[in-house]
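Hi, here's the filled form for the chain we discussed.

Project: internal
Contact: R.S.
Residues: 182
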Amino acid sequence: MINRKLFNEQMKAHQDSSRAGAAAKFKGGLADTGEKTTQLHTAHHLLLAALQKVLGPEVHQRGSNITEERLRIDFSFDRKMTDEEKSAVEKLVNEWIQVNHKVCRREMPRTEAEQLGAEMEFGTKYPDIVSVYVIEDDNGNAISKEFCGGPHAEQTSGLGIFKIQKEEAVAAGVRRIKATLS
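And the returned structure, exactly as it came back:
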């Protein structure tokens, strides 16, 4: 005979455990904190900055997933990118990588980070004190400013060559790019 109450309790415990494990595994969109994933995460910041520069400042991140094989970014944009736009984004990211910009982490109050214009992921709740990663040139000009808690490369050199593999729609007004470093 099946003890329905015990079964339901154990099923709930299993589901809660699975959810917690999945949330921990993909915290900040990262599958792990290995070197390749960290490099792709840093390139992800450059990609968002390049999308904003090429497509316009109204582009914002709507989600991400980064593994050691590729990065994925979901972003707000209402049409398919042209081949010229994709090429311009790739070129810009690769230029920033080659110039060897430094990646700096700064802790600050959330309100200060918001005033600086640091990018935030839509729908994410942030604590009162946040980490902001800034990729800047030698003159201290910010290329990218984002709220972020994940690991990053210390500089852009050594990331490799950035390549967009695919760009597609995922929802109304949301596009997705999958890209790699080689």
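Let me know if anything looks off before we file it.
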